[in-house]
Amino acid sequence: MKLWAAFFKLIRYPNLLYIALTQFLLQYCVVAPVMHSYGEEPSLSVGQFILLCLSTVFVAAAGYIINDYFDINIDIINKPDRMILDKVISRRWAMAWHTILNMAGVSLGFIVAWGTGQIYLGFIQVICSLLLWFYSTSFKRQALIGNVVTSLLTALAVVVVGFYEKQIYHSIEAIMSPVGRKLIQIIGVYALFAFIISMVREIVKDLEDMIGDSKDGCRTIPIIWGVLSAKRFCNILLLALQVTIILVEIRVWMFGWYLAIAYLVLFVQLPCIYIYAKLKAANNAAQYHKVSSLVKLLMLTGILSMIFFKIFL
To answer: How far separated are the first and last CA of the chain, in Å rounded?
Structure first.
């Protein structure tokens, strides 16, 4: 039991649930309602969607394992009490699980791609797997590039569902159709939200892990730019997020979605302001960890806003 508990902690099962929830809500609260409003059906069957979701989750789980594998020296300093590798699970077994999950994720991706008749879509999971490997071995130790790669992968977890929709991959005519343009607009907004909020969280985590990162030779944003500049960058990102949300609210106001606007104000915009205040006051690892948890919660409330498309469309 202790071994399984350690394994699920190693693969960050709460984050995997976030990914699965995001893709589920996007498929059944955004894609399906939009398609139905135009008298069409989604391209993915229920079975194909489940396989695609599992594919994404497996590749992400493999990424978390390999990240911890190469972060052992950093984690000994930053979180010695929360280490799993070399304490509960050996490095050899970690690498074995990484390989198994990667192979399973990539294989499922190709199965779904083959089922839709667009086999090239299977290479999306291959690219994600490679990016996660290079992130763990190199990118995360470089200023900005590691944060950007992680944020792009987070956004891709949203976008990948849309990639398998024929209105997006079939032809230029399909993309430019009313249903195609609407799907791209909605998915694009959520992908942008995921990218920005992930960037904020990654920089806050860098602030939290500065001591261990600096001793391991990492060149993260707080180490290269300084703590104050890293915080200012986060504030710029939070401001960009607020502007994006305001533009969305103006748009949905025209459709009379007042309940959705109230939700965004209460559960997305106000928490953004609160996170800004907490980040400004934070000055140690424990406080940065709390801010990181708040950002993760903000990500959840943003994801849950997809439910309104199911209600109003």
So the answer is: 45
Residue written as token pair 């607009």: 185
Distances (CA, A) of 194 to 46, 145, 298: 24, 17, 10
d(CA 271, CA 54): 31
CA-to-CA separations, 15 to 12, 27, 71, 146, 158, in angstroms, rounded: 6, 18, 18, 18, 14
Cα separation, 45 vs 235, in Å, equals 41
Structural domain harbouring 223: 2-312
Would the pTM count as exceeding 0.70? Answer: yes
Domain total of the chain: 1
| pLDDT surpasses 60 at 257 | yes
242: its two tokens: 């607020």
Token pair for 70: 């190469």
- Give the whole-angstrom CA distance, residue 183 versus residue 194: 16
Q: Please provide the DSSP assignment of 257-312 as one string.
A: -HHHHHHHIIIIIHHHHHHHHHHHH--SHHHHHHHHHHHHHHHHHHHHTTHHHHHH
- What tokens were used for 186? 């909605």
Q: What tokens were used for 19?
A: 């990914």
Give the integer Cα–Cα distance in Å for 30 and 310.
Answer: 7
Residue 226: partners with Cβ closer than 8 Å, 6 or more residues away: none
pLDDT at residue 297 greater than cutoff 70: yes
Mean pLDDT of 197-224: 88
Q: 60 and 16 in contact (C-beta within 8 Å)?
A: yes
Query: For residue 282, what is the domain's CATH number?
Result: 1.10.600
* 52 neighbors 43 (Cβ within 8 angstroms): no
313 Cβ contact partners less than 8 Å away, ≥ 6 residues apart: 33, 34, 36, 37
